[in-house]
Amino acid sequence: MSGPVTYDDTPPTEEGARPHPVPEVEVTAAREATVGALTVRRALPRRGRRAVGAWCFADLMGPAAVTEDAGIDVGPHPHIGLQTVTWLISGESLHRDSLGSEQVIRPGQLNLMTAGNGVAHSEEATGRYRGDLHGVQLWIAQPESSRHGAPAFEHHAELPSVESPAAVATVLVGEFAGAASPARHDTALVGVDLVLRQGTDEWPASPDFEYAVVVVDGTVSVDGTAIDAGQLGYLGRGRDTIRIDRTGSARALLIGGTPLEEPILMWWNFVARTRDEIDDAYAAWQSRSDRFGTVASPLERIPAPAPMWAPSR
Q1: Residues sharing a CB contact under 8 Å with residue 121, sequence separation 6 or more, in sequence order
Q2: Residue 159 forms beta bridges with which residues?
Q3: What span, in angstroms and rounded, lies between the C-alpha atoms of 94 and 102?
Q4: Which of 43, 99, 163, 232 has its Cα between 20 and 30 A from that of 192?
Q5: Residue 231: enclosing H or E segment and its boundaries?
């Protein structure tokens, strides 16, 4: 359910948009992309907005019909320098990785895989679920202190939530409104799933964070600006609270964090700092070196496209 990032999402340079120094709402539309057997709406990265805090990727998946034997169907592929965060709204999916992990994920559960210096994984049908698949895949860019480290995988069957009269907020990563997720995070950030009914909520925020709202279903409004399903509303930084209004039911992700101090370079399924790092990862995957290990998957291994700057491309 992850990637890849292409030139259509963001140019492969080391420069990116800087966080707005004052609170404001900037709305951008997602673009449609194909991931495995699914069509997704990619809300992040987009040209002009590469990251929100360390969050650097957000795909809205489905809803799409899957069967016992045909699901997402994303074969083994590699990652470096990021964490994948998988959150399902409906359906089931099977995660396999080069660490030997084999984990079914269901709604209300979280899969978090840390790539570090290199990991590979696949996302597959479970062999038993038939119905709609709907969810979100996010990436978190790892900081210098951990991005060259060992890969890891964790599954959380239960996550904390906070309720208001018109909303339920489930904390995927980080801390929010007094609740803390058990999931690993290497930078100061937060990710929250908001199930919203008609009404208004005002949630606590950190002025040091920049924030964005990614709307999954329905429409929400922040500071009088409407954000529709499939859109990302970038909220800037400097907020003590975030007020979210809606006239009907809606679902959205609130993501935020301390702005990245170092520009990131994204290409295919890699998050790096330089082209040389991506060239090395590309060569390692194509040569089937030990760097990314082996995934025990029946799906075909996905070859890496040559970086667009490669002379032979």
Answers
A1: 2, 76, 77, 79, 84, 95, 96, 97, 98, 101, 113, 295
A2: none
A3: 7
A4: 99
A5: strand 231-237
Joined tokens for residue 102: 């084999």
Domains with residue ranges and CATH for the chain: 26-265 (2.60.120.10)
Residue 164 phi/psi, 5-degree rounding, is -125, 175
Alpha carbon separation from 133 to 94, 122, 306 (Å, rounded): 12, 16, 31
Q: Is the peptide bond before 298 cis (omega within 30 degrees of 0)?
A: no
Determine the 3-state secondary structure of 229 from DSSP. Answer: coil
pLDDT digits 0-9 by tens, 53-86: 999 999 999 888 888 888 788 999 999 999 999 9
pLDDT value of residue 14: 47
Question: Tokens 């990710």 sit at which residue?
Answer: 191
Between CA 251 and CA 245 the distance in angstroms is 12
Residue (of 30, 241, 47) closest to 137 by Cα position: 30
What's the CA gap between 60 and 58, in Å, rounded? 7
Q: Does residue 279 sit in helix, strand or coil?
A: helix
What is the value of pTM for the model shown? Answer: 0.92
